[in-house]
Amino acid sequence: MYTGQRSGSGPTNFAFRHTGDGFSGNIGSPTSTGTTISLTAAAYQNITAATEFRLYGYNADQNNGSFSVDDFTFSGSTLGTTVTSLTGFSACLNTAGTAQSFTVNGSGLSPANATITVAPTTNYEVSITSATT
Question: How far is CA 101 from CA 91, 92, 98, 104, 129, in A?
Fold first, then answer.
């Protein structure tokens, strides 16, 4: 959602676009005063790469007009996809290694009940001896 304002002979046409299609397709119906643009379509879900959205304003008199976005709100859930590798762990295959610990912190996840997956590499085991949810 955004609110905007146009003065004089500022832009009269607007487009909201996304990197996913090379900024070629319009999303929603942006206006000079603002609107809510829905990103519920499948193309905008589960995006794992960096993405960019752009709001274009065009067909303006270059000398006597302006347009500004006064407020912008993004509503929805986002979850980082960064994989963190742990180092310094060692054990011998087929023998009991020394217990070593690490902390996984999910504070700030959105939604708050998102899933965090901890997956060991081949020949390693991850077990929970103490967990707080």
Answer: 13, 17, 10, 10, 9
